[in-house]
Amino acid sequence: MTIRESGEMYLETIYILSQKSSSVRGIDVGEYMGFSKPSVSRALGLLKKDGLVVTDGQGFIKLTETGEERAQRIYERHQLLSLLFTNLGVDAETAAEDACRIEHYLSDKTFDAIKRHFEQYGHRG
Amino acid sequence: MTIRESGEMYLETIYILSQKSSSVRGIDVGEYMGFSKPSVSRALGLLKKDGLVVTDGQGFIKLTETGEERAQRIYERHQLLSLLFTNLGVDAETAAEDACRIEHYLSDKTFDAIKRHFEQYGHRG
DNA sequence: CATTATAGTTAGCATAAGCTAACTTGTCAA
DNA sequence: TTGACAAGTTAGCTTATGCTAACTATAATG
Questions:
Q1: Residue A99 sits in which domain range?
Q2: pTM, to two decimals
Q3: Mind listing the pLDDT tens digit for each residue in B66-97?
Q4: Number of folded domains in chain A?
Protein backbone atom coordinates (compact mmCIF):
# COMPACT_ATOMS: atom_id res chain seq x y z
CA MET A 1 0.00 0.00 0.00
CA THR A 2 1.22 3.42 -0.92
CA ILE A 3 0.34 6.21 1.48
CA ARG A 4 -1.89 9.04 0.41
CA GLU A 5 -2.86 12.50 1.50
CA SER A 6 -3.73 11.47 5.01
CA GLY A 7 -0.55 9.49 5.53
CA GLU A 8 1.50 12.33 4.14
CA MET A 9 -0.07 14.73 6.63
CA TYR A 10 0.89 12.48 9.52
CA LEU A 11 4.40 12.12 8.15
CA GLU A 12 4.78 15.84 7.72
CA THR A 13 3.49 16.48 11.23
CA ILE A 14 5.99 14.04 12.70
CA TYR A 15 8.71 15.74 10.69
CA ILE A 16 7.74 19.19 11.94
CA LEU A 17 7.39 18.08 15.57
CA SER A 18 10.71 16.23 15.39
CA GLN A 19 12.43 19.48 14.56
CA LYS A 20 11.12 21.10 17.74
CA SER A 21 11.51 18.17 20.09
CA SER A 22 13.40 14.93 19.81
CA SER A 23 10.67 13.04 21.69
CA VAL A 24 7.53 12.93 19.62
CA ARG A 25 4.63 10.73 20.79
CA GLY A 26 1.34 9.81 19.19
CA ILE A 27 -0.53 12.10 21.53
CA ASP A 28 1.52 15.05 20.29
CA VAL A 29 0.73 14.21 16.69
CA GLY A 30 -2.97 13.96 17.50
CA GLU A 31 -2.96 17.26 19.35
CA TYR A 32 -1.17 19.01 16.52
CA MET A 33 -3.51 17.65 13.87
CA GLY A 34 -6.69 17.79 15.94
CA PHE A 35 -7.27 14.04 15.56
CA SER A 36 -8.21 11.45 18.14
CA LYS A 37 -5.80 8.97 19.68
CA PRO A 38 -7.27 5.97 17.86
CA SER A 39 -7.00 7.75 14.51
CA VAL A 40 -3.34 8.49 15.21
CA SER A 41 -2.77 4.97 16.47
CA ARG A 42 -4.06 3.41 13.28
CA ALA A 43 -2.29 5.89 11.03
CA LEU A 44 1.01 5.24 12.78
CA GLY A 45 0.43 1.52 12.41
CA LEU A 46 0.09 1.93 8.66
CA LEU A 47 3.15 4.15 8.44
CA LYS A 48 5.12 1.56 10.42
CA LYS A 49 3.89 -1.20 8.14
CA ASP A 50 5.09 0.85 5.20
CA GLY A 51 8.49 1.28 6.84
CA LEU A 52 8.17 5.04 7.15
CA VAL A 53 8.25 5.39 10.94
CA VAL A 54 9.49 3.35 13.89
CA THR A 55 8.81 3.62 17.60
CA ASP A 56 11.36 2.90 20.30
CA GLY A 57 10.63 1.04 23.54
CA GLN A 58 9.25 4.20 25.17
CA GLY A 59 6.76 4.81 22.36
CA PHE A 60 8.68 7.73 20.87
CA ILE A 61 8.22 8.09 17.14
CA LYS A 62 11.07 8.42 14.68
CA LEU A 63 10.99 8.69 10.93
CA THR A 64 12.98 6.08 9.05
CA GLU A 65 15.28 7.23 6.27
CA THR A 66 12.55 6.64 3.70
CA GLY A 67 10.01 8.31 5.95
CA GLU A 68 12.24 11.32 6.43
CA GLU A 69 12.78 11.63 2.69
CA ARG A 70 9.09 11.43 2.06
CA ALA A 71 8.26 13.93 4.78
CA GLN A 72 10.91 16.29 3.53
CA ARG A 73 9.54 16.06 0.02
CA ILE A 74 6.12 17.12 1.22
CA TYR A 75 7.47 19.80 3.49
CA GLU A 76 9.50 21.29 0.66
CA ARG A 77 6.40 21.39 -1.52
CA HIS A 78 4.59 23.12 1.31
CA GLN A 79 7.27 25.74 1.68
CA LEU A 80 7.63 26.32 -2.03
CA LEU A 81 3.89 26.66 -2.61
CA SER A 82 3.60 29.05 0.32
CA LEU A 83 6.39 31.09 -1.18
CA LEU A 84 4.80 31.06 -4.61
CA PHE A 85 1.47 32.23 -3.25
CA THR A 86 2.83 34.92 -0.96
CA ASN A 87 4.89 36.19 -3.88
CA LEU A 88 1.67 36.54 -5.83
CA GLY A 89 0.31 38.71 -3.03
CA VAL A 90 -1.57 36.17 -0.94
CA ASP A 91 -1.44 36.65 2.84
CA ALA A 92 0.80 34.23 4.70
CA GLU A 93 -2.01 32.39 6.47
CA THR A 94 -4.04 31.72 3.34
CA ALA A 95 -0.92 30.76 1.43
CA ALA A 96 -0.03 28.23 4.12
CA GLU A 97 -3.54 26.80 4.16
CA ASP A 98 -3.63 26.39 0.40
CA ALA A 99 -0.14 24.96 0.37
CA CYS A 100 -1.15 22.43 2.99
CA ARG A 101 -3.98 21.09 0.87
CA ILE A 102 -2.15 21.26 -2.44
CA GLU A 103 1.28 19.93 -1.43
CA HIS A 104 0.11 16.34 -1.90
CA TYR A 105 -0.87 16.81 -5.51
CA LEU A 106 2.06 18.65 -7.02
CA SER A 107 4.09 16.57 -9.46
CA ASP A 108 7.88 16.51 -9.45
CA LYS A 109 7.96 18.28 -12.78
CA THR A 110 5.85 21.20 -11.63
CA PHE A 111 7.68 21.37 -8.33
CA ASP A 112 10.99 21.58 -10.16
CA ALA A 113 9.66 24.23 -12.50
CA ILE A 114 8.57 26.44 -9.61
CA LYS A 115 11.92 25.90 -7.94
CA ARG A 116 13.81 26.83 -11.07
CA HIS A 117 11.66 29.92 -11.40
CA PHE A 118 12.73 31.17 -7.99
CA GLU A 119 16.36 30.26 -8.58
CA GLN A 120 16.30 32.21 -11.83
CA TYR A 121 14.41 35.28 -10.83
CA GLY A 122 14.90 35.37 -7.11
CA HIS A 123 12.11 36.22 -4.71
CA ARG A 124 11.18 38.29 -1.73
CA GLY A 125 9.95 35.41 0.46
CA MET B 1 -24.14 17.71 2.24
CA THR B 2 -21.55 19.77 0.43
CA ILE B 3 -19.91 18.14 -2.54
CA ARG B 4 -16.24 17.41 -2.55
CA GLU B 5 -13.46 16.59 -4.92
CA SER B 6 -15.31 13.68 -6.48
CA GLY B 7 -18.53 15.62 -6.96
CA GLU B 8 -16.61 18.52 -8.43
CA MET B 9 -14.97 16.22 -10.95
CA TYR B 10 -18.37 14.96 -12.11
CA LEU B 11 -19.68 18.50 -12.31
CA GLU B 12 -16.70 19.67 -14.30
CA THR B 13 -17.03 16.73 -16.67
CA ILE B 14 -20.68 17.48 -17.29
CA TYR B 15 -19.73 21.09 -17.92
CA ILE B 16 -17.05 20.15 -20.42
CA LEU B 17 -19.22 17.61 -22.22
CA SER B 18 -22.11 20.09 -22.34
CA GLN B 19 -19.95 22.48 -24.31
CA LYS B 20 -19.34 19.86 -26.99
CA SER B 21 -22.79 18.34 -27.12
CA SER B 22 -26.12 19.49 -25.81
CA SER B 23 -27.17 15.92 -24.99
CA VAL B 24 -25.01 14.56 -22.19
CA ARG B 25 -25.94 11.22 -20.62
CA GLY B 26 -24.58 9.35 -17.64
CA ILE B 27 -22.83 6.89 -19.89
CA ASP B 28 -20.88 9.72 -21.51
CA VAL B 29 -19.78 11.01 -18.15
CA GLY B 30 -18.65 7.53 -17.13
CA GLU B 31 -16.73 7.02 -20.34
CA TYR B 32 -15.00 10.37 -20.06
CA MET B 33 -13.99 9.80 -16.46
CA GLY B 34 -13.26 6.08 -16.76
CA PHE B 35 -15.85 5.21 -14.09
CA SER B 36 -18.53 2.57 -14.07
CA LYS B 37 -22.21 3.20 -14.68
CA PRO B 38 -23.24 2.59 -11.07
CA SER B 39 -20.61 5.03 -9.82
CA VAL B 40 -21.94 7.67 -12.17
CA SER B 41 -25.51 6.83 -11.29
CA ARG B 42 -24.93 7.39 -7.61
CA ALA B 43 -22.82 10.49 -8.11
CA LEU B 44 -25.52 12.04 -10.30
CA GLY B 45 -28.10 11.17 -7.68
CA LEU B 46 -26.13 13.11 -5.10
CA LEU B 47 -25.63 16.06 -7.42
CA LYS B 48 -29.37 16.07 -8.11
CA LYS B 49 -30.14 15.96 -4.42
CA ASP B 50 -27.83 18.94 -3.97
CA GLY B 51 -29.66 20.79 -6.73
CA LEU B 52 -26.63 20.97 -8.99
CA VAL B 53 -27.90 18.92 -11.92
CA VAL B 54 -31.27 17.87 -13.35
CA THR B 55 -32.24 15.24 -15.89
CA ASP B 56 -35.03 15.62 -18.41
CA GLY B 57 -37.48 12.87 -19.37
CA GLN B 58 -34.99 11.35 -21.82
CA GLY B 59 -32.27 11.06 -19.18
CA PHE B 60 -30.20 13.92 -20.54
CA ILE B 61 -28.22 15.76 -17.92
CA LYS B 62 -28.25 19.52 -17.47
CA LEU B 63 -26.49 21.66 -14.91
CA THR B 64 -28.70 23.91 -12.85
CA GLU B 65 -27.71 27.53 -12.44
CA THR B 66 -25.92 26.73 -9.19
CA GLY B 67 -24.35 23.66 -10.76
CA GLU B 68 -23.13 25.66 -13.71
CA GLU B 69 -21.62 28.30 -11.44
CA ARG B 70 -19.89 25.68 -9.41
CA ALA B 71 -18.60 23.84 -12.48
CA GLN B 72 -17.38 27.05 -14.01
CA ARG B 73 -15.57 27.96 -10.85
CA ILE B 74 -13.66 24.69 -10.94
CA TYR B 75 -13.04 24.88 -14.65
CA GLU B 76 -11.62 28.38 -14.30
CA ARG B 77 -9.29 27.16 -11.60
CA HIS B 78 -8.22 24.37 -13.88
CA GLN B 79 -7.47 26.73 -16.74
CA LEU B 80 -5.68 29.24 -14.56
CA LEU B 81 -3.50 26.65 -12.86
CA SER B 82 -2.63 25.10 -16.21
CA LEU B 83 -1.64 28.52 -17.44
CA LEU B 84 0.41 29.23 -14.34
CA PHE B 85 2.31 25.97 -14.65
CA THR B 86 2.94 26.17 -18.38
CA ASN B 87 4.19 29.72 -17.87
CA LEU B 88 6.69 28.31 -15.41
CA GLY B 89 7.93 25.95 -18.11
CA VAL B 90 5.90 22.83 -17.38
CA ASP B 91 4.71 20.85 -20.41
CA ALA B 92 1.02 21.17 -21.22
CA GLU B 93 0.10 17.60 -20.30
CA THR B 94 1.73 17.67 -16.87
CA ALA B 95 0.33 21.12 -16.21
CA ALA B 96 -3.18 19.89 -17.01
CA GLU B 97 -2.76 16.81 -14.80
CA ASP B 98 -1.54 18.85 -11.86
CA ALA B 99 -4.26 21.44 -12.40
CA CYS B 100 -6.87 18.70 -12.41
CA ARG B 101 -5.83 17.45 -9.00
CA ILE B 102 -5.19 20.85 -7.47
CA GLU B 103 -8.20 22.81 -8.78
CA HIS B 104 -10.36 21.55 -5.92
CA TYR B 105 -8.10 22.93 -3.22
CA LEU B 106 -7.34 26.45 -4.38
CA SER B 107 -8.95 29.16 -2.23
CA ASP B 108 -10.69 32.16 -3.71
CA LYS B 109 -7.98 34.41 -2.39
CA THR B 110 -5.16 32.55 -4.06
CA PHE B 111 -7.15 32.13 -7.25
CA ASP B 112 -7.75 35.87 -7.38
CA ALA B 113 -4.09 36.58 -6.70
CA ILE B 114 -2.99 34.39 -9.61
CA LYS B 115 -5.58 36.01 -11.85
CA ARG B 116 -4.43 39.50 -10.89
CA HIS B 117 -0.87 38.46 -11.59
CA PHE B 118 -1.71 37.54 -15.17
CA GLU B 119 -3.81 40.63 -15.68
CA GLN B 120 -0.95 42.78 -14.45
CA TYR B 121 1.97 41.19 -16.21
CA GLY B 122 0.32 39.45 -19.12
CA HIS B 123 1.31 35.99 -20.18
CA ARG B 124 2.19 33.83 -23.14
CA GLY B 125 -0.45 31.13 -22.51
C1' DC C 1 -43.52 -9.74 -32.23
C1' DA C 2 -39.42 -11.47 -30.18
C1' DT C 3 -34.66 -10.76 -29.54
C1' DT C 4 -30.85 -7.99 -28.54
C1' DA C 5 -28.35 -3.94 -27.29
C1' DT C 6 -28.05 0.24 -24.57
C1' DA C 7 -28.72 2.92 -20.47
C1' DG C 8 -29.71 3.28 -15.92
C1' DT C 9 -30.56 1.39 -11.18
C1' DT C 10 -30.19 -1.62 -7.08
C1' DA C 11 -27.72 -4.45 -3.95
C1' DG C 12 -23.89 -5.28 -1.88
C1' DC C 13 -18.53 -5.36 -1.45
C1' DA C 14 -14.00 -2.89 -0.57
C1' DT C 15 -10.94 0.66 1.10
C1' DA C 16 -9.68 4.92 3.35
C1' DA C 17 -10.03 7.54 7.16
C1' DG C 18 -12.42 9.96 10.63
C1' DC C 19 -14.97 9.01 15.33
C1' DT C 20 -16.47 7.20 20.35
C1' DA C 21 -16.43 3.80 23.98
C1' DA C 22 -13.97 0.91 26.48
C1' DC C 23 -9.91 -1.60 27.61
C1' DT C 24 -4.77 -1.98 28.82
C1' DT C 25 -0.50 -0.41 30.50
C1' DG C 26 2.74 2.15 32.88
C1' DT C 27 4.07 5.72 36.12
C1' DC C 28 3.67 8.28 40.15
C1' DA C 29 2.02 9.95 44.51
C1' DA C 30 -0.54 9.26 48.88
C1' DT D 1 0.27 -0.89 47.73
C1' DT D 2 -3.32 1.22 45.68
C1' DG D 3 -5.68 4.58 43.04
C1' DA D 4 -5.51 7.82 39.40
C1' DC D 5 -4.01 9.84 35.33
C1' DA D 6 -1.86 9.59 30.79
C1' DA D 7 -0.90 7.15 26.57
C1' DG D 8 -1.91 3.73 23.51
C1' DT D 9 -4.87 -0.01 21.51
C1' DT D 10 -9.08 -2.58 20.13
C1' DA D 11 -13.70 -2.91 18.55
C1' DG D 12 -16.91 -1.24 15.98
C1' DC D 13 -19.54 2.84 13.74
C1' DT D 14 -19.78 6.28 9.88
C1' DT D 15 -19.15 8.47 5.39
C1' DA D 16 -17.22 8.85 0.84
C1' DT D 17 -16.42 6.66 -3.25
C1' DG D 18 -14.78 3.27 -6.19
C1' DC D 19 -16.26 -1.62 -7.95
C1' DT D 20 -19.08 -5.99 -9.89
C1' DA D 21 -23.24 -8.60 -10.59
C1' DA D 22 -27.65 -8.58 -11.67
C1' DC D 23 -31.92 -6.38 -12.65
C1' DT D 24 -35.06 -3.13 -15.39
C1' DA D 25 -36.60 -0.42 -19.06
C1' DT D 26 -36.41 1.29 -23.46
C1' DA D 27 -35.30 1.19 -28.27
C1' DA D 28 -33.85 -0.94 -32.44
C1' DT D 29 -33.69 -4.91 -35.53
C1' DG D 30 -34.67 -9.18 -37.83
A1: 73-121
A2: 0.94
A3: 999 999 999 999 999 999 999 999 999 999 99
A4: 2
